[in-house]
Amino acid sequence: MGTRDSVEIWEKTLAALRSIATCKDKLDEAEKMVNHLTAEIAESSRRGILNNPADVYDQLCTLARLSTTIGDLRRGLGELESLEKKLHAIQKRIEMDFMIMEQIREQLKKKFKIIADKSSEIK
To answer: What is the pLDDT of residue 4?
Structure first.
């Protein structure tokens, strides 16, 4: 795999990981909605407005499962953020390695030129 391919893969990976912030915003919105609905159901139940307690229980169970799922997703996004930081560090290291390799290549070119010049003087 060439350098260009590697760079493209890194860029695509990092672009995908950058979408984490957007996902977190969406999760925050969903969590607020779940909390709001739970509060509304609890308030309606407290006031005795709800007709069927079994429906209320089912709705609260569904909201609890949603809340748990949101928490699981949030933990997963945290792990992805950690991975993103590690990938950034690796990317920086690769960039440094390429710079060092380029410097070594330039030094070798200079040394080979000196050797070539000296060998042409000897002939």
So the answer is: 67
Which tokens go with 43?
């308030």
Cα separation, 24 vs 22, whole angstroms? 5
What does the H/E/C string look like for 9-72? HHHHHHHHHHCHHHHHHHHHHHHHHHHHHHHHHHHHHHHCCCCCHHHHHHHHHHHHHHHHHHHH
pTM of the model: 0.59
**Count of CB atoms within 10 A of residue 77's CB?**
15
pLDDT of residue 102: 94
Higher pLDDT, 37 or 118: 37
Half-sphere exposure at residue 114, Cβ-oriented, CA atoms within 13 angstroms: 6
Contact present, 33 and 58 (Cβ < 8 Å): no
Q: Helix axis angle, 53-122 relative to 20-47, nearest 10°?
A: 170
Cα–Cα distance for residue pair 27/56, rounded to 1 Å: 24
Using the 8-state DSSP alphabet, how is residue 79 labeled? H
Residues in the chain: 123
